[in-house]
Design brief:
heterodimer, A: 274 residues, alpha/beta, 4-stranded antiparallel beta sheet, 11 helices, 10 strands, B: 219 residues, mainly alpha, elongated
Chain lengths: 274, 219
């Protein structure tokens, strides 16, 4: 006879696998990376490795360079014409600034979720299949499968499965954000960048996204910029504290929030400056 | 530098209340020593009567800490201060309870003369009370060295306790009619030794606040 304990064991099994993956290669290696907007240096000598299958949080006061940094990771920052950069950012051993490395290939592997939900003015279904269609997938059956898998992955399927053809704007803010996450999952990325993904959401939707992040890290590596330090403490494995364009401290999240090494980190997270 | 003034004020208030709690416990231990020396049952009853003040203040501190954690969501040293406040208040409250236990033993002994002069037991209690005073001062100053010295002083108490209990056991065979009294005196020694242990726990909490690491000083 199957007991509850047996079921628990069955449920726990995949987690172990994830833990084993933790010691894998870094998904990103950043070495002596500098970035200027015109003459103003926004990032100075950034060097650290971002581990795979973990959640890495980026915290710091406004203007410290955290959004610039995360946008450098998928080369979105280059859309600003006056940007200059030096140093290396390696994604899975490829220098992302190498001329041979196509930005399209990078963005297929690195999805991004923004602060405000930004679904396309299309149906829920069309939002999810937008990326896969661009990549040439036309088979309706395959697309249907992608939609179901992505929406399930974003914990939205049960809420929208009966109205996939309705406009995405009809969804609540929290649902729209999860739709954006589903849209990101549809292209089967390796890394998901999140730039303050819950700052426009209510506490319940925030909780759902946070729980989702915990699920997603089993399959993806997640880098999240957040102003909410408790959120960083709740959901991340590693945390980088940025200040004035520099990384002051990068360490295990529980270490950084319970006993930071640097006085500036201590001052920031205890609200004594900023 | 922007300081969370309101939060800082409330942290300071908790610290002040912890010191007040410590003073009440010190007073209880002090009174228990006097009551023992003078076999003063009235004083012992007073200690038992006053214990509710310590318990109530401990509860008040704990409630404040819990509320402050809930509303301010403190991190790093602030969080360590509040968690330590919870632990320290528990240790100090236990010291109060041990003073009550001593008082109860004094009542059980009553006015029957001691089989042998007991100078060393009050001396042991003085040492424990000194530890309490020193450790509260180290908590106030967040002085790691002072906290470490307090923990070291506990070894002295442990040794003295071991010796006293051995002597008391020997007395039991010598004065079989007074076994009950000697047993109560041994209990009192044990209670005092426990006060030393709680002071050592407080030392550990002080060091945790400052260093962010736990050290076992009780071994």
């Amino acid at each position: 006879m199957k007991t509850i304990m047996d079921e628990k064991k069955v449920q726990k099994a995949p987690r172990k696998e994830v833990e084993q993956k933790k010691d894998g290669q870094p998904v990103y290696s950043i070495e002596n990376f500098n970035l200027w907007y015109g003459k103003d240096q926004a990032l100075t000598d950034i060097s650290f490795d971002i581990p795979e299958h973990q959640v890495t949080a980026i915290i710091g006061p406004s203007g410290c360079g955290k959004s610039t940094f995360i946008k450098a990771l998928n080369r979105m920052v280059e859309m600003v014409p006056i940007v200059k950069m030096s140093g290396d950012i390696k994604y899975r051993d490829n220098n992302i600034f190498d001329n041979k490395y196509k930005v399209e290939d990078l963005r297929t592997k690195v999805g991004m979720v923004f602060q405000k939900p930004n679904p396309f003015p299309k149906s829920i279904y069309e939002n999810v299949v937008y990326g896969p269609k661009i990549h040439g997938i036309k088979n309706k059956k395959v697309l249907d499968e992608i939609v179901e898998k992505s929406l399930k992955g974003a914990a939205l399927w049960e809420e929208v499965k009966d109205r996939l053809n309705e406009n995405a704007y009809g969804l609540s803010g929290g649902q729209q954000q999860r739709l954006c996450i589903a849209r990101c999952l549809a292209i089967e990325p390796d890394v998901i960048l999140m730039d303050e993904p819950t700052s426009a959401l209510d506490p319940i939707s925030t909780l759902k996204v946070e729980e989702l992040v915990q699920e997603l890290k089993k399959e993806f590596s997640i880098i999240i910029v957040t102003h909410n330090m408790q959120q960083a403490a709740r959901i991340s494995d590693k945390t980088a504290f940025f200040l004035n364009g520099e990384v002051v401290e990068f360490s295990d999240t529980n270490k950084l929030f319970s006993n930071p090494s640097d006085k500036r980190t201590e001052d920031y997270i205890t609200g004594r400056f900023g | 530098m922007v300081v969370r003034e309101n939060f800082q004020e409330q942290l300071d208030e908790i610290k002040a209340q912890l010191l007040e709690l410590g003073s009440l416990a010190q007073l209880a231990v002090d009174d228990s020593i006097k009551a023992l020396k003078n076999q003063d049952v009235e004083k012992a009853l007073e200690i038992i009567d006053n214990d509710h003040k310590i318990n109530e203040l401990e509860e008040e501190i704990n409630e404040k800490v819990i509320w402050l954690i809930a509303k301010e969501q403190p991190l790093a040293s602030d969080l360590r201060r509040l968690i330590s406040a919870l632990k320290i208040s528990t240790d100090v409250e236990r010291v109060g309870d041990l003073a009550v236990n001593i008082a109860k033993s004094i009542i059980r002994i009553g006015d029957k003369p001691f089989v042998k002069p007991i100078e060393e037991i009050p001396a042991l209690a003085e040492k424990a009370n000194n530890m309490l005073r020193e450790v509260l001062s180290s908590f106030y100053e967040e002085d790691v060295n002072q906290a470490k010295d307090v923990a070291d002083a506990d070894d002295e108490i442990d040794n003295m306790y071991g010796r006293l209990v051995k002597e008391l056991l020997e007395l039991m065979t010598k004065y079989p009619d007074s076994i009950s009294q000697i047993q109560q005196l041994a209990f009192i020694c044990r209670y005092i030794e426990r006060i030393g242990d709680h002071c050592t726990n407080i030392s550990e909490s002080v060091i945790y606040v400052v260093k962010g690491k736990r050290y076992d000083l009780n071994s």
